[in-house]
Amino acid sequence: PNDTFTFHGLLTGAVDACGFDFAIELLDVQALNERVARGAFDAAKVSFAAALGLAEEVVVLPVGAAVGRGVGPVVLAPRRAAASDTSLTSRRAASKFVLAPGEQTTAALLWRLFHPGEGTLKHVVFSEIMPALARGAAWRGVCIHEGRFAYGAWDLELVEDLGATWEHATGLPLPLGGIVARRRLGPERWARLTQPIRNSLAYARADPQRALASMRLHAQEQADAVLWKHVELYVTHDTEDLSDEARRALVELVLRAVGAGAAPGGATLDVA
């Protein structure tokens, strides 16, 4: 919902494209990560964890990012399982399935950073995680997007807020994902590309009720209260323009990922 809110003006043609010919595709976050890695897009919203593996090919645009506090992925479990096995460090836990929304997602990276060796990660489309947990098909699930707000309806229990864990460990907001552009486009195009995205965000903020139609069209969770809560948390001042604190958070994510062997040595996330 935060992305369809931000891109509402461009998706509906209400905002001038500033000379660009946009062909916009809306995809699951891991599908975007994979297609960007294959060179499919000139610019795209990706997980910052995925951007780490593409650091030599892309730069981060200063607009459109999801960075904040209280926005992290949540670790969920079936209520009965959570009550009977609350220890994430038990020996039995090492062999249990942990569902995650994609190998290159920041959610999966956070699990690896804070719970190395715990559970066997199994990657599925994010919208399949809560139903699978409700069926008892996995021990834990790392949930993103609307999962933070809707897990109670699936009779699931919150085991851990990975965003809170990150904030406690670093003192910084959590950088989840952002818009990247190919380095080959060059600084002039990077700068021009930020403008229509920023204008689209401004258009949605000026008339949020109109943006609701775009959010409803593509959301997995249709409750309006959930959609607005998502926008409230994930569309921040850093979505409009990355702050110095957000940039420090990106540096911290890089350092921790490299230290854990989850990103190549010398990786950086350069902001255009």
How would you describe what is shown here?
By secondary structure, this protein is of the alpha+beta class. It is built from 14 helices and nine strands. Strands 6-5-7-4-8 form a five-stranded mixed sheet. Strands 1, 2, 3 and 9 form a four-stranded antiparallel sheet that branches. Strand 5, helix 6 (106-114) and strand 6 (120-123) form a beta-alpha-beta unit. Helix 10 crosses helix 11. The radius of gyration is 18 Å and the shape is globular.
Largest sheet strand order: 6-5-7-4-8
Inertia-based shape: globular
Which secondary-structure class do the elements indicate? Answer: alpha+beta
Tell me how many strands there are. 9
Unreliable spans are: 86-91
Rg: 18 Å
Short description:
The protein is of the alpha+beta class and 272 residues long.
Lay out the secondary structure:
Elements: H1 2-6, H2 8-11, H3 29-37, E1 43-47, H4 48-52, E2 58-60, E3 66-68, E4 74-78, H5 79-84, E5 97-100, H6 106-114, E6 120-123, H7 129-134, E7 140-143, H8 147-150, E8 156-161, H9 162-170, E9 174-182, H10 186-206, H11 208-218, H12 224-234, H13 237-240, H14 244-259
Parallel strand pairs: 5-6, 5-7
Antiparallel strand pairs: 1-9, 2-9, 3-9, 4-7, 4-8
